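Example 3.2
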Amino acid sequence: MRSLSADRLLEKLSRPELATLYTDLKAYAERALKEPMPSLSFRLYRQFSDTGERKAYEEAYFDRRGRLAAVAMLALDTARPDALQALEEMLWDVCGEYTWCLPAHLGTGEINQVDGNIDLFAAETVHMLAEIVNIHTERLDLLVIERVRSEAERRIFKPLYREQRKFHWQTADHNWSAVCGGCCGMAALLLLEDEFTLQESISHTVSCMNAFLSGYGEDGGCAEGIGYWVYGFGYYTYYAEMLREYSDGELDLLTGSKIAAIAAFPLRVHLSGGTYVNYSDSAEQEEIPSGLLSLLASRFGLQGDLPLHIPLFTDDSCHRWAHLLRNVMWSDPAVYGDEGAFRQAECGFIFQNLGWMIAKGSLDTPDTKRTNSTPLHVAISIKGGHNDEPHNHNDLGQFIIHCGGENILCDPGAGLYTQAYFAPGREQLFHISSSGHNVPLIEGKEQSSGRQAQAHVLEAKLAEDGGELNTTFDLTFAYPGAASLACYTRQFYWKMASGDSRNRAELRLIDRFQWKSRMVSLAERSSSVVSDSHAECSSVVERWMSRVQPEVVKCGNIRWQGVHGTVHMTYDANQWQVLTEGIDTVDHDNVPVKFYRTSLSWTGVIDETDVCIESSDLIETVCEVRFIIEPKMVETEVSMHE
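Structure, written as tokens:
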């Protein structure tokens, strides 16, 4: 991208597969030409330090970035001098901002915290300005170009490369090192004329990239989830390609088995229909930049099962220039799978380092053989790991049941980012707490935070065809507050139907709770403080989360009716009492969303002949449930599930 010409970029934009993107882009740009740039006022800037509110400032901030990016593309057309003039005004305006950082990344936002500070978005800004100036260098006013260079020097190059200030992200093992380091490094390759400082920037950026890679194991799994894979590894890739071009291929950061495994991550966590495993702060429906996916497919020979989709400019609320430009330049329809064919990239995968397990398969429907239509895709995903991961949720033992492009038993994903979301006590928030996940409440205690809260894998076996997955976790250390708990294990048995009965899949889940010899009396238990009101007299409350409202079919049988598939759950109603409740919250974009939590409560009355099994000085409580996944159109008698 160092020598990208405006003519070549305009030619790329004219390709048929980019027509919808270009229409969306032009509409945004035309609006930007008619309206003044939104102001980043003092009052907006102060909101975060005063109230913890960050959305209003960030909406204005990202709208400004979006207008600049869209107008920069519109200005490629030499018949639009109005767009070029507007581009110069916008570049000048962004150069005059008090800070390129977000207030949420500046503490209280005082001057000493602003001067020389570099966060994700200051880095993204300098990169965007550098590439826009590079593309339009022959037509922009020289004073605008010099101002961009001057602000890049003052805000980025001087503190980072010349003064060599230390920033926390330089050694981070997550997306910050790749995004901050990569963006500043790309801007340096484009703007710096001092060869000594340029070489310093390369050494610095490669060090940041190595820190980023240290957060990945050899399995290529991203603990932050698919959304942050896009962010972190996306910018890693963008810098790597620019560096390879700059060095005529001598410096290539996209080599080796570990990099190949990281590149394959989105295909391995894709379940079907553009829906992904979304642990941590990721969304189920994630926009994978088509340029990034195409480049990686080309470099590593990847063949995926994703349908062709080139994200619209307005799909990204942050309007990131790096994704936009590379979607235009690199998108290749040939690397995508055929939506009408069943071509899952892999039938399953165990991320040994990450502690994630995924199995995928397909079910026949009444129409599959008759009309040769696509089978119904189903999948299961299970999460281990620990509770001190980047963007951590307290979710050890969490699992997802997927059917027909929909996560029917689901993960809540990211909540709205506020000051409280990253502050002490964050584990009390719904999206982060174990109360928002498919894991139990034990003796009124949720899972704890911290590295010591770890899932120990006792067994993990996956059949080559993905048709069977058996795994067992020891999750005892996730519940240090449960005083009477001696041991807690969670077992999963996943099996796809075979032969002529390929119209169902089954997941058996067995939770075993072993208690210490001294059992808490019912009176003592009822006097304890419990977060769920219905669990005050319970030793265990199992929870299942879904966006689909559950139906109690009959005693011991619950059904979730999805768009294309149905999930039935059977359980022992003699031992476990059921409760369903709706939970209203907002998602990461502040859009209202409703989850339904289904709870199974054990009353705490121990009948050793029925509920418990004595083993030496330990008493065991068992919760076994069975989930049957079927196509929606198949009406199966409840008796089949019993």
